[in-house]
Amino acid sequence: MLKLRDGIAELYKKVATSLPPDVREAMQSGLARETEGSTAFSTLSVQTENMKLARETARPICQDTGVPTFWVKVPTGLSHFEMKNTIIEATRLATEKVPLRPNAVDSITDRNSGDNTGIGFPVIYMEETRESSLTVDLMLKGAGCENAGQIYKLPSEELNAQRDLDGVRKCVLDAVQKAQGRGCPPYILGVGIGATKDQVTKLAKEQLLRRLTDVNKIDELAALEARILNELNELGIGPMGLGGRTTALGVKIGVNHRHPASYFVDVSVSCWATRRGRLIW
Amino acid sequence: MVKLLRVPVSPASEEMRSLRAGDIVSLSGTIVTGRDKVHKYLVEEKPPKEEIPFDLNGAVLYHCGPVMRKTEEGYKAVAAGPTTSMRVEMYEARVIREYGISGIIGKGGMGENTIRAFKETGSVYFHTVGGAAVYLADRIKKTRNVWKLDEFGPTEAMWLFEIENFPAIVTIDSHGNNIHSDIERISMKKFLELTGR
Fold it and tell me: What is the mean pLDDT of residues A166-176?
């Protein structure tokens, strides 16, 4: 497990210091859409310059490494308990070596643990796989955008939103309108639809693992994702909320069956620096 | 055109009063950092000025919880972008008035109470790019001093940084102009149109 620990620490470093190629490309296309000399253009220029510098010098793109979140597919026979301990050890190691900012704060005493580990910290989701290899997905997203997330219970009179896909569209527009520039746009939006609050929140965040180039397998959702993305970019909020055409880089929607009496929609907002990566072992 | 500004600076100075929302500035000199814990402490505990190892009068306060590395020459900022300013809205106006802060560097803008303090004192809001942690850390040339490091930890401590050509845009000035509320008004109009209300 020592080698795996070092592999996961290395994954931390890669994820913290370099953005995935699809996000880098989307940022470049955003830059091409904005007018040279505008605030939006200069903001995107600094952001793209920063991602290049971070990669070249192997320093964290953002000082806020957020709450590290893992999705692990564990082959049959490998202990989930051991796996969790290995991730925790790797977290301690990476915090010191990369370095990462320690973010785990005791909710009662307000003390920072200093190594990014604590109760339920990092967040680890595990499931068994029939595959022979282990897959570890890691996402780092800052608290500024995490705080901008919203959960909705449809129908909503305030939003004039019914229990249908058009209602979902209104929820996403509302979340971004409320967030303005506070969560570091251009944003990537993960949306979860389903029966219970806990389920849609996890589903929404999982959507952020999808590549921006990924097209939803469900036609209705693929069309909705494209429509919402266009409409978000019509809002004029722009990079860092200072105006412009690039408010969002992508919208990804996941769906579960719902209860006849419930229609929950969770919108997970991610900043432009959506840091994710995968280790296959 | 970029306006060059040496800090610290008196908020009541001609130079500060002449700043307008939309001005692109480049800051050089020294700044202090402060986020959630520092603000709460300053307002709730009201420490005497002698307790703080550096002068906050005229200081620019950067909303930032940096990644710091201890080296042989002292602490170095590895990554140091802005944090969301609205979280300290309930404290900021009092901090500006009591300690003579001349400007806030942050992201996302601030609320009515802080804006009132800007108008009264001449201080302004400097907006800088979120997530540009490495780019901005490279404008921090030296760590001069730190306060509350042991008690608050490196993220929440107040650092005194020497900066050179630190880029920012004035988005809220001391005359009532506010780019954030302008943008929110525009996007609200579009939002209502798109949601059919």
Answer: 98
Domain that holds residue B78: 2-194
Question: Could you tell me which residues come within 8 angstroms of residue A56 by beta carbon, excluding any fewer than 6 positions away?
Answer: none
Query: Residue B14 in 3-state DSSP?
Result: helix
Whether B92 and B113 have beta carbons less than 8 Å apart is answered as: yes
Burial class of B64 by CB neighbour count within 10 A (0 to 12, 13 to 18, 19+): buried
Distance from the B68 Cα atom to the nearest Cα atom in chain A, whole angstroms: 8
Q: Which residues of A touch B135 (CB under 8 A)?
A: 46, 49-50, 53
pLDDT tens readout for residues A9-48: 999 999 999 999 999 999 999 999 999 999 999 999 999 9
> Of B187, B189, B190, B193, which to mutate for an interface test with A (greatest number of A Cβ within 10 Å)?
B187
Nearest to A229 by CA among A203, A251, A208: A251
Q: What's the confidence (pLDDT) of residue B153?
A: 92
Mutation for testing the A interface, residue in B24, B38, B84 having most A CBs under 10 Å: B84
B180 pLDDT higher than 90: yes
For chain A, positions 45-64, list CB contacts with chain B under 8 A: 46-47, 49-50, 53-54, 57, 59-64
Token digits of residue B26: 């480049």
In a 13 Å sphere around the CA of A70, the CA atoms on its Cβ side amount to 28
Q: What are A213-252's pLDDT values in tens digits?
A: 999 999 999 999 999 999 999 999 999 999 999 999 999 9
Q: What is the pLDDT of residue A129?
A: 97
Neighboring chain A residues of B169 at a CB cutoff of 8 Å: 39, 242
**Residue A142 predicted with pLDDT over 90:** yes
Q: Do A60 and B64 touch (CB under 8 A)?
A: no
Instruction: Tell me whether residue B180 is one of the annotated catalytic residues.
Output: no
Chain A contact set for B155 (CB, 8 A): 101-103, 112
- Closest listed residue to residue B187, CA positions, set A27, A244, A224, A35: A244
Counted residue by residue, chain A has a size of: 281
pLDDT at A274 over 90: yes
Residue B49 confidence (pLDDT) above 90: no
Taking an 8 Å cut-off on Cβ atoms, the answer to whether B134 and A60 are in contact is yes
The answer to whether residues B85 and B110 touch, using CB atoms and an 8 Å cutoff, is: yes
Is pLDDT above 90 for A1? no
The domain total for chain B is 1
DSSP state string for A144-167:
HHHTT-EEEESSBTTTTB-SSHHH
Contact between chains at A174 and B84 (C-beta distance less than 8 A): no
CATH number at residue B20: 3.20.130.10
Report the complex ipTM.
0.93
